[in-house]
């Protein structure tokens, strides 16, 4: 059974701090996705990581992929309130995406 | 990027009635679309894979007679929740790929279904 595990599931952090969200998956997947979801909204694509060692950065977010360890990280640098949202990672062992449980992030002043 | 449009964004219906949700790929052809369901504060669960011109493939535990999927064209898939009950209330999201496996998936805006 495919498992996609995110850690932590809930994260409250102060503005200006750094933190990392982890995504472990249990099956082979050459690519990994990170999405953001705001309350009541659909998914917004953040990153598509296509190969082992891939690193992508957008603003205060940076994502990396280690396919050998089956691990991806989403690093938050100097968090701001606007980053408060739920973040999902997803893998695609087949044609559909399988999602982690999501990390609910709250950035406080 | 590619656009996937989902309609309606919100719907309230009475128990026992049926509701149709549409998912359209606006600027590309999608041979395959996916339907997900999301409970409050939970992850997305794949319900079914919709294939143009053929029957949908349902995930284990999803009632195909309750959740009817039709993919009649390369730009439109519909999900009909039949004889809806309050427990069917949820957030439904569709997704589509532009073509083959090695293409990014795009998501619709989601439909909030409330059955009263």
Structural notes for this entry:
- The complex is a heterodimer of chains A (about 110) and B (about 120).
- Chain A is mainly β and about 110 residues long.
- Chain A is about 0% helix and about 55% strand.
- Chain A contains no helices and eleven strands.
- In chain A, strands 2, 4, 5, 9, 10 and 11 form a six-stranded mixed sheet that branches. Chain A has a five-stranded antiparallel sheet with strand order 1-3-8-7-6, with no helix packed on it.
- In chain A, a hairpin with a 5-residue loop joins strand 4 and strand 5.
- Chain A is globular, with a radius of gyration of 13 Å.
- The N and C termini of chain A lie far apart (about 40 Å).
- By secondary structure, chain B is mostly beta strands.
- Chain B is about 0% helix and about 55% strand.
- Chain B has no helices and eleven strands.
- In chain B, the strands form two sheets. In chain B, strands 2, 4, 5, 6, 9, 10 and 11 form a seven-stranded mixed sheet that branches. In chain B, strands 1-3-8-7 form a four-stranded antiparallel sheet, with no helix packed on it.
- In chain B, strand 7 and strand 8 form a beta hairpin.
- Chain B starts with a strand and ends with a strand.
Keywords, separated by commas or semicolons:
heterodimer; A: 109 residues; mainly beta; six-stranded mixed beta sheet; globular; B: 116 residues; seven-stranded mixed beta sheet; four-stranded antiparallel beta sheet; 0% helix
């Amino acid at each position: 059974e495919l498992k996609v595990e995110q850690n932590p599931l809930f994260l409250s952090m102060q503005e200006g701090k750094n933190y990392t969200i982890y995504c472990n998956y249990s099956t082979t997947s050459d690519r990994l996705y990170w999405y953001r979801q705001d309350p009541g909204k659909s998914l917004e694509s953040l990153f598509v990581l296509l190969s082992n060692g891939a690193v992508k950065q957008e603003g205060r977010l940076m994502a990396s992929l280690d396919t050998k360890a089956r691990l991806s990280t989403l690093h938050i640098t100097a968090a701001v309130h606007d980053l408060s949202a739920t973040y999902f990672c997803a893998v695609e062992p087949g044609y559909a995406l399988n999602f982690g449980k999501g990390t609910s992030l709250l950035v406080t002043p | 990027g590619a656009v996937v449009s989902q309609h309606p964004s919100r719907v309230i219906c009475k128990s026992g009635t049926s509701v149709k949700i549409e998912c359209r790929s606006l600027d590309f052809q999608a041979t395959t679309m996916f339907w997900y369901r999301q409970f409050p504060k939970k992850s997305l669960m794949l319900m079914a894979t919709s294939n143009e011109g053929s029957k949908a493939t349902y995930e284990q535990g999803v009632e195909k007679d309750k959740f009817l999927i039709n993919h009649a064209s390369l730009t439109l898939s519909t999900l009909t929740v039949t004889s809806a009950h309050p427990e069917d209330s949820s957030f439904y999201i569709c997704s589509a790929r532009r073509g083959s496996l090695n293409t990014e998936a795009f998501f619709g805006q989601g439909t909030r279904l409330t059955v009263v």
